[in-house]
Amino acid sequence: MTQRTGQCLCGAVTFVARADKTEFGACHCKMCQRWTGSALLCVTVPQEQIEWSGSDHVATIQSSDWAERGWCNKCGSGLWYRVTAEGPHAGNYEVPIGLFDDPAGLTLTHEIFIDKKPDGFAFAGEHGRMTEAEVLARYGVTTIGA
Question: What pTM, to 2 d.p., does this model score?
Answer without folding.
Answer: 0.92
